[in-house]
Amino acid sequence: MPKQLLFIPGPVTVAEPVLAATGQPMIDHRGPEFKALLAQLSQRMKPVFGTTRAEVLVLGASGTGGLEAAVTSVFGPGDRLLACPIGVFGERLIAIARTWGCAVDVVETTWGHALGPAALRARLDAATGDERYTGVLLTHNETSTGTQNDMAAVAAALRGHDAYTIVDSVSGLGASEFRMDEWGFDVVVTASQKVLAAPPGLAIVAVAPRVWERMDANPAPRFYFDLRKARDFAALGQTPWTPPVSIVFGFDAALDAYEREGAQSVYDRHERYARAIRACAAALGLEVYSSEGAHSLTVVAIRLPNGVDGDAVRRTLREQRGVVIGGGQGRLKGELIRIGTMGDLTQTDVLGALGALEIALLEHGHQLSVGTGVQAALKVFLAAEEPAAV
Ligand code: PMP
What we know:
The protein is of the alpha/beta class. About 45% of the residues lie in helices and about 15% in strands. The protein has 14 helices and 15 strands. A seven-stranded mixed sheet has the order 2-10-9-8-5-3-4, sandwiched between helices. The chain is globular. The protein starts with a strand and ends in a 5-residue tail after the last helix.
């Protein structure tokens, strides 16, 4: 395969040492080495979730598996949930809950915008008696629209309500500070192939202490994704079912890299890459899909002008330039391109991809002044490197 620069918002480019770690010899998944590895992973993920109290469980599954595990463990028929989708993945969470028999109401948000905390609060306050919601479904970072919610503000809106909260942070966790304990979220789900930059295959689920009693009281059927089983086996240093051992090795190496870089530097890197890509879009006369104040740190969604087909631009980029970016999903198909900031990518990679994007856009009829997009991105990078004034 020719060399590719992978700029989709997951799975992301995985660094060589992480890939190498996945090639280690197989070990007994019920033996002492795996036990030590699993316990450490769980412990090391706690600061990433911002928790000292929650149990962090590692599941052999993609992010969707983690979300299904959360929903089926906590909720079932008889539960009334309030969902707050801001894009395709929020809608998927609703589909999971409905599939498992929950009644789901929806707080509607215009795509490209963040959830309005006041709208959420109003819906919770208005539902009294039998109408009361037992759960709230939330998205931290919506990958389909490049939009991020202000989770501190969402947490403030939930204060005083005791509904159980499930947060999809599959494409958000690790790219900014998350404070699960302080914000009071009950179950937070992420996955290995996003900010943490390991291969796909693991869902990592943090469960707050009060949720275990609720899970015992939940009569809904569940088996493979019963988080209580995951908890009981984690206490033995195991997973209930055979885990993807190679991916666990890779995830361990990816966490080494995360810790070596330092959380704050990781946050800054994502913020800077996202800002550079948005600056490029603006300089090229393209509209960033997310609204001001709601920009995602991990993916930039860019709306293409009428007459420029996003999927055709992506094909040209992939086939002629070796740059792979995301497209619009669901009702946004063809309208958007999405450029991820996650993974083992350098500033030079970002500049190269944006240069290739300029060429592809020109080829597809978008008028632009060559080099202005790359220059705008370069300025963001250079400004970040200037020494602080003394
Ligand atoms: N939620 C969000 C916000 C995501 O970005 C994704 C993956 N793109 C998922 C859920 C689903 O994760 P997976 O594809 O790993 O099942």
